[in-house]
Amino acid sequence: MTRQTIHAVRLGIIAGLCLIAAARGASASIDISGSALVSAQKIDFDSTSGALDEDFNFNDPRVNLYFKSTISENIALNFTLWASNDWSSANNRGNAGTVVFDDAAELRGAFITIKNVGGSKLTLKAGKVPISYGYEAPNRTANGDSTKNDFLTNSLLDMHGNDEGIALSGSFEASTTPISWEASITNGGAVTDGNPSGAGGQTRSNADLALAARITAKLADNITAQASWYSSDQSKDGDNDALNIGSSFFVTAVQDGTATNKNLVGLVYAGQGQGSAYDRDLWEVSAKYDYGNGYFMGFWGDINADTVTPGASREWKYWGIQGRYNVDENAYVAARWNALDPDYAGAGALGKPNLLSVAAAYKLADNARVTAEWTSFNEDGGGFSNEGTAVGAASTSDGRNADATALTAGISVKF
Length: 415
What we know:
By secondary structure, this protein is mainly beta. The chain has 2 helices and 16 strands. The relative contact order is 0.13.
């Protein structure tokens, strides 16, 4: 059976389950929505690597489908499907980046939602759920969906992820301040599923679960504050953590496409094997001010990745600001700047790499938007793209300039 056939069968099964579930009760229903994104991007790398200095790509069309099957007033099934022509990112330098998938379709999320659990006002999600961390994850460009993002690309760190587990959410008022919260317990890493029938398949245990929490407070009609925390200890299992950090193509693929930046180990992925992988703790605070014709916001956070390997522990502080101005009801302009600050022994010449983006958008219709964006990456240090630096060793200048700029244009549609 070909891969394409397998994907078609998967999609058919999921669609069938939704339809069956919706048909089983008079109050049941099924909602299908989606989004699509087509884009083109020109990247100019300020380096000395010849043919790879400049890339132009018509990026493959990407489509997201969202299925929601309402079983009853308080119970629903949710599925998110991502589809594209090729999972290998056209943004990766020389098409030799570090994140490559063969699949043309992915079941990105699949969970059951139960509202008013036990007569309370709490909502429970169980299955493959979004990790409850950070301000950006719910609003990022996710495959074919950029409708919640004022830009086409994502921030320098682009922290997000889905993982198998449970999530609980609710809201309350403290004095007159509305507060909402969500918390999740998930696997935290790649785990081989067990077989409840006793037929085997469990290759290792998973005692190192990941914990996440996010709380949002509406301090005034136009002021919102948020705090997040995430903890995942994969030091025993050696798993790659499910929370994706540092997926920006400027971070992971500014070299010649031959290796991942060793100075980012612990930030980008776990990567050191059983007994010597990373115990990661993260926190972030952010605030947003809506001024009528747009908004301003800022965030600040810390990533602490510890390991028993001498000299290989990592700590990064990160921060940024972002704003938008609505020209009229159909057009807006937006700007974003964020940076990383390595704060560990051996950081050497890393500097404070940063990313600046400016975007302009125009609404073509109620469900369609065209966006143009200019982005500039500044490594601010000669060692940031040092692919030859050994894990744990002090950073030294690699003799390459990893600075880069990108022009991106795209059309997004919501249906």
